[in-house]
């Protein structure tokens, strides 16, 4: 059952068509990846879905409701939240406080309750703090709840971003390069967490990701953008075998690498690269 339907979405900046007539359907309870080389329009597409940019053409429907002309905060209230390619935490706030900030769209106490700290407001605050701790426990950060966000290791900062995104009780979360900059151990841990978002929390996941091992291992469907145009869509096996995708940027070596790591999870990306020529590796993008 479709949760989100984007039809013929176009976004233009002057003479540049950043997103060109893209149609995408996301089923409820799925994990979907949007991939493509740098400049393909992936993040711009996320920005359109979340109200940062208004589309020049097309329609976006989420859970039966049109998202056109809604502000970003209104789209969050509808049930879509996101993380960003560049980490955007409140560095001088604690880990717990960062998650509490993410709950603001779901808190209901009126202003006079907050000003006078009424029993109703204090009860809601206690409930919010308990919910925040549960989310931190889910991502493995409850023992660091009183640390400043800026003092967390890089991988933990990524986890905190996900916990804050979950604080708004989303139906769908958009993850923009969630494993960027991580070492292999951190990447494997983040991959498991992404799977748990769907399996344990019931959240639909859409991710932009450059790591093909991650994409191929957890995605049920993959959409490929190139110069703002969707050039392919299908299962991981479909994408591996798609001649247009291979020609655009994956290269034959990338499909061999993906197959090698898919067959033997102990083979790392670096180990699989010995099977590719230097020429092929230059073809592979930083997605």
Summarize this entry quickly.
The chain has 287 residues and is α/β, with parallel strands linked by helices. 43% of the residues lie in helices and 22% in strands.
Mind sketching the topology for me?
Elements lengths: L1 E12 L2 E12 L3 E5 L6 H8 L7 E6 L2 E2 L5 H7 L1 E3 L12 H7 L9 H6 L2 H21 L14 H13 L5 E5 L7 H16 L4 E5 L3 H7 L2 E6 L2 E6 L1 H6 L1 H21 L5 H4 L5 H6 L4
Parallel strand pairs: 3-8, 3-9, 6-7, 7-8
Antiparallel strand pairs: 1-2, 1-4, 4-5, 9-10
Question: What key attributes describe this structure?
Answer:
single chain, 287 residues, alpha/beta, four-stranded antiparallel β-sheet, 22% strand, globular
Biggest sheet overview: 6 strands, mixed
Helix content: 40-55%
Shape descriptor: globular
Report the uncertain regions. Answer: 261-287
Please state the structural category: alpha/beta
**What integer value in Å does the Rg equal?**
20 Å
The run of helices and strands is EEEHEEHEHHHHEHEHEEHHHH
Write out the strand line-up for the largest beta sheet, numbering strands in chain order: 6-7-8-3-9-10
* Helix run count: 12
Strand content: 15-25%
End-to-end Cα distance: 29 Å
